[in-house]
Amino acid sequence: HTPDPYTSIRTEVPVPGVGLIRLERPKALNALNQAVQAEVLAAASAFDTDPEIGAIVVTGSERAFAAGADIAEMAALDYSDTERLFDGWDRLAQLGTPLVAAVSGYALGGGCELAMLCDVLIAADTAVFGQPEINLGILPGIGGSQRLAHAVGKAKAMDLVLTGRTMDVHEAERAGLVSRIVPATDLLDEAVAVAATIASKSKPAVLAAKQAVNRAFETGLTEGVRFERALFRGRFATMDRAEGMAAFLEKREPRFTDR
Ligand code: CO8
């Protein structure tokens, strides 16, 4: 792995198949400024197009996944600056490779939104979630009002977005925001293990499965099932489908070739 060209993140490949992106602005609790946005998108896009990488972990520090958009940077913006402000985060959400968020400490505002736009959310028992934008006279701007409402329902989404209060990891898990809670000391190992498991599967099958689940949040049941069925049938044109089924019947591990 070549050295990072980045200033606000670090990347590595902790185990084969897994790309790790670590937010690193410790003095600002990993506040998401434009540099972080550009670097996360660049790093994730590079992993996304790397045939050796099958899943990407996004993490922060022990104290903060990310404490939101950078308020100092935002304070200087006017209306016309905001039009394409968060395009990079939208593009991150569109990548095919699954994103696993490993959240410890604060995931507030844009930090909570970044965690929610990932596909799997592994949280340390220290994680704290919230959308406190209302305290700044704004509202969530990186999809938070929508993804939070989808994840936890109207009752809790309204409570959080209108009052700006935070919720601890247990409340977040009960509400459906979190995939798994793990002890803080195990967070990165667990998240990398989940990512490695995903990376061990057939890549085209993983992509189709991610697209199918995401479609549930964009369309109705009949359309969603129709979409799933087309993707399902498409698997029968792949070698990995034949290999996966043959391996099961021959009682051996599959050797997927992503074809
Ligand atoms: N932006 C910039 N700097 C920050 C941010 C942030 N979001 N959060 C923390 N920092 C900085 C602090 O200013 C402080 O810097 P310094 O040491 O230079 O004073 C340093 O990080 C450490 O923070 P604290 O001293 O405040 O640490 P505490 O442990 O006392 O508190 C908190 C931790 C509770 C997380 C507190 O820092 C906090 O409330 N942060 C702000 C949280 C917040 O409001 N986030 C939402 C931001 S808005 C947003 O994300 C909107 C996204 C979409 C916007 C759409 C606009 C068009």
TrEMBL record:
Catalyses which reaction(s): a 4-saturated-(3S)-3-hydroxyacyl-CoA = a (3E)-enoyl-CoA + H2O; a (3S)-3-hydroxyacyl-CoA = a (2E)-enoyl-CoA + H2O
Pfam family, one: ECH_1
The protein's Enzyme Commission number: 4.2.1.17
Gene Ontology MF term list: enoyl-CoA hydratase activity
Alphabetical keyword list: Lyase
Keyword Lyase set for record: yes
UniProt keyword annotation of Lyase present: yes
One BP term from GO: fatty acid beta-oxidation
Similarity-based family: Belongs to the enoyl-CoA hydratase/isomerase family.
Protein's name in the database: enoyl-CoA hydratase
Species in which this protein is naturally found: Streptomyces brasiliensis
